[in-house]
Amino acid sequence: MTSLFALALLLHDFTWFSIGVVMAPTYILLALACVCLSLNIWAIAHPTSIKQLLKEFASIG
After folding, report:
1. This prediction's pTM
2. What is the DSSP letter of 23?
3. What stretch of H or E contains 35?
4. Cα(3)–Cα(47) distance, rounded to whole angstroms?
5. Residue 13 to residue 33: CA distance in whole angstroms
6. Taking a C-beta distance cutoff of 8 angstroms, is the pair 7, 37 a contact?
7. Exposed, middle or buried by CB within 10 Å (0-12, 13-18, 19+), for 13?
8. Average pLDDT value over all residues in the chain
9. d(CA 18, CA 30)
10. Is residue 3 a contact partner of residue 40, using CB atoms and an 8 Å limit?
């Protein structure tokens, strides 16, 4: 479900590029969408490694 929202944000940013709205928020949201999609793909492809990473972050905090 989260991948769909990240993909929607990515497509929304591409519409901004197509109509010529190229400002700092466009690039910031594009980077955010890419990070979200990357994390989602990583979580689907390698659930054990991301689970281990989250455990390490939980032990730090």
Report:
1. 0.77
2. S
3. helix 24-45
4. 15
5. 9
6. yes
7. buried
8. 91
9. 14
10. yes
